[in-house]
């Protein structure tokens, strides 16, 4: 209870209300003390009227009047004449004089607190103005003990009332917080616990319903977070399933490609000029496919193996990629151009760079052919003291908004119907394995351009 939010708010509310009542208590006690003394002055004035009506009164009646007024003597000043109207013996000498005609609030509060804290009975002189202008002033002498007792009794009543008010207010606040804050928070916590038990289940995503603005914002943020997490988990599960399927397919495909590789060995012995020209490229393609299957390089099955870095002529890999894509383009009007310097050598894994460039060129070719318009693809490369830079540009229709938002995300950035969006995701992973970076420089109606940067040093660009 104490450690709960509502319990602590209940305690704090009670404390704060009590503090507020204490701040009210001090001036209230001062006001009560002032009213007490004014009441005694008024009683004394009424008692003096008896003497003014009859100069000679019985001593017993005089004592009774003073007793009812709770004073020892009464002095009335009328017409500039100071007159002792009623008097009786005083038990002590006058300790202090209090003039109620012109006292500031702070003075009254200070005097009241000193009187409340002083247990000694003293005789004080109180001076005030008569009511209804019945003279210039009236003064009385009186004991402080009855006044202090009355002040304590009044103070206790205030404190008891304050305690009752604070507890009642705290209980109302407690119930209100339970209804409007604690219960909605517990409901959100319950949603979080149910979602944590099965985060893949989209039915467990919270539906915002809180009436409190701050809680509604928290529920909206939680819904967004749960939606993204569920989507990510589903994607991860799909990748795992894909990896399992690819590992099975690669086993059988490797055997098929191994047989095809044996057939190409026989083809290489042909004397046909066309066969002689195409056979090495066919052998290279089959060799790469066999190596890919043997390594089980399936995105989502496992991480790509680290690259085997070696100095390679980039132009040879680019020419090989462009030639294969030119054959795939067939009769469609797509031009493939390489402006890579023939002598440029980079430190990279030839097989992995072939896959990177192959994915990028293939995407560009498919984008141009899908648009139904002629186009061009250009691969260029340069070097700086820090890095090698490879750019690939095309004159296609550009990437749509969805593809840009999920550019390097598997299964989300595909442009073609039925595509998986794996090409750019695989390329980005392979480039990162080289310590490099791949980014989209521009895209739109004028075409698309990607830039690959590979470090020349120790892995820092």
UniProtKB/TrEMBL annotation:
Residues 215-242 form a coiled coil. Its EC number is 2.7.13.3. It catalyses: ATP + protein L-histidine = ADP + protein N-phospho-L-histidine. GO terms for molecular function: ATP binding; phosphorelay sensor kinase activity. Keywords: ATP-binding, Coiled coil, Kinase, Membrane, Nucleotide-binding, Phosphoprotein, Transferase, Transmembrane, Transmembrane helix, Two-component regulatory system. Residues 248-458 form the Histidine kinase domain. The chain crosses the membrane at residues 6-30, 158-181. CDD domains: HATPase (cd00075). It comes from the Bacteria. Pfam families: HATPase_c. The keyword Transmembrane applies. InterPro entries: HATPase_C_sf, HATPase_dom, His_kinase_dom, HisK_dim/P_dom, HisK_dim/P_sf, Sig_transdc_His_kin-like_C. Gene3D superfamilies: 1.10.287.130, Histidine kinase-like ATPase, C-terminal domain. PANTHER family: PEROXIDE STRESS-ACTIVATED HISTIDINE KINASE MAK3, SENSOR HISTIDINE KINASE. This is histidine kinase. It comes from Sulfitobacter guttiformis. The lineage of its organism: Bacteria, Pseudomonadati, Pseudomonadota, Alphaproteobacteria, Rhodobacterales.
